[in-house]
Design goal:
By secondary structure, this protein is α/β, with parallel strands linked by helices. It is 32% helix and 21% strand. The strands form five sheets. Strands 9-7-5-2-10-1-11-15-19-20 form a ten-stranded mixed sheet, with helices on both faces. Strands 14, 16, 17 and 18 form a four-stranded mixed sheet that branches. Bound molecules: inosinic acid.
């Protein structure tokens, strides 16, 4: 069954939106399987730039079915406004469907997110979109699902019950209480518009797979933000790794063909948490400016650093990545030398394993290997042969260190700045 998964292999913002847009040339169905509108998938087509948060990145390909899967947490008001925005810009959204099992995010989750972040506990640096609280409700078995968008009375009753519970919490911690009926009116308005898109998408996806259609599972965030495998607790609240595609989309593991890992030629991170190769000098600033490293969802400047092969090898192993797509190679164009982190020194010992311990990660000193820069413009390269030798050597070294193969290289944000390779 031709089912592929595409995931991020770092801390998110690897350029997945662009890659999904490129890969969906030959795809019939795209499924988002986790996360919510904390994601910001940027797609540039000609002079137009779109940032998608919940709508799958296949939406720009006419005829491609785009599914918001059951593993996603979807804010109905935000989803409807994203669809309205796309409609306004002339993008056909009629193929966007929502799984009836998708959990919903509401205003109280967003307020709870803020309350958690401003309390005495650990500050994660979340996107403030209510992601963690919505997944917590799912696990607590008090969440409201998309199936309820089709039953306004049931939805209203459940919403009022949850608001009452949350308002009591907000009162106790001095946060503003919600105006329940005003918020409900917004939810019911979005529900009415979204209801025709709510389906049992598990049957749709499995029927498509059985019929031999090409299906792409679109991951959000990255492996190092995975709730199990990331730098816990500085992670998001879902399984961002490939295993999440089976549970978050409802397909069996044996249906998976390829796992694409999107990997930036350097590393970035937004929010709090350990980042062993972070650069605090001019070079970090240079990467941020050249790479336009500012959050697509929150506008926050991203922390920048060298390519971390220890972290990405762990990510590729857990995901089973067999095809890498290296992005933003051109951002390194004018560096004299480029470092790669090949190990961590922790308590005087060098390891090439990614530690689970936060304390070890925070104290880890990167062991760096330096490679010569290529000092020329790669943004116009359209094939392997157009790349300078030093860039080829860098890509080969990346592939070798993370124990996978490079199949795509991207040298700029546009569709045409992408080419296939075999390394
Ligand atoms: P949350 O997903 O909003 O709960 O945020 C948890 C952590 O994940 C924070 O460090 C966020 O900055 C990070 N995060 C969430 N979504 C993204 C993303 O799409 N790209 C990069 N970082 C993200």
């Amino acid at each position: 069954m031709p089912v592929d998964i595409l995931v991020g292999t770092q801390w998110g913002d690897e350029g997945k939106g662009k890659l999904i847009d490129v890969l969906t040339r030959d795809v019939d169905v795209v499924v988002r399987f986790q996360g919510g509108n904390n994601a910001g998938h940027t797609v540039e087509i000609g002079d137009e730039r779109y940032v998608l948060h919940l709508v799958p990145s296949g939406v720009f390909r006419p005829g491609v079915k785009c599914i918001v899967g059951n593993g996603v947490v979807a804010d109905p008001v935000a989803l409807q406004s994203e669809l309205d925005e796309l409609d306004k810009r002339g993008v056909d959204t009629s193929n966007v469907l929502i799984s009836n099992r998708t959990q919903l995010i509401f205003c109280y989750h967003r307020v709870m997110d803020r309350v958690n972040e401003s309390g005495t506990g650990v500050k994660i640096g979340t996107t403030g979109r209510g992601i963690g609280p919505a997944y917590a409700d799912k696990m607590r078995r008090t969440g409201i699902r998309a199936i309820d968008l089709t039953a306004p009375e049931r939805l209203a009753a459940a919403f009022r019950t949850e608001c009452k519970k949350y308002n009591a919490i907000f009162k106790r911690c001095g946060a503003d209480e919600l105006d329940v009926e005003a918020e409900l009116a917004k939810v019911l308005d979005a529900a009415k518009k979204l209801a025709p898109r709510v389906r049992d998408t598990v049957y749709i996806v499995n029927a498509a797979a059985k019929a031999g259609k090409n299906i792409l599972f679109e991951g959000a965030q990255g492996a190092l933000l995975d709730i199990d495998h990331g730098t816990y607790p500085f992670v998001t609240s879902s399984n961002t790794t490939s295993g999440g595609a089976c549970t978050g989309g409802g397909v069996p593991p044996q249906s998976i063909r390829n796992v694409w890992g999107v990997i930036k030629a350097y590393t970035t991170r937004v929010g709090e948490g350990p980042f062993p190769t972070e650069l605090f000098d001019d070079c970090g600033e240079k990467l941020r400016q050249r790479g336009r490293e500012f959050g697509a969802t929150t506008g926050r400047p991203r922390r920048c650093g060298w390519f971390d092969a220890v972290a990405s090898r762990y990510a590729c192993m857990v995901n089973g990545v067999n095809k890498l797509a290296v992005t933003k190679l051109d951002v390194l164009d004018d560096l004299d030398k480029i470092a790669i982190c090949v190990g961590y020194e922790v308590d005087g010992k060098v390891t090439d394993e990614f530690p689970a311990s936060l304390a070890e990660l925070e104290s880890a000193k990167p062991v760096l290997d330096y490679m010569p820069g290529w000092k020329c413009d790669t943004s116009k390269a359209r094939s392997w042969n157009d790349l300078p030798d030093a860039a080829k050597a860098y890509l080969k070294r990346m592939a070798e260190l993370v124990d996978s193969s490079v199949a795509i290289v991207s040298v700029g944000p546009r569709r045409d700045q992408t080419f296939g390779v075999e390394i």
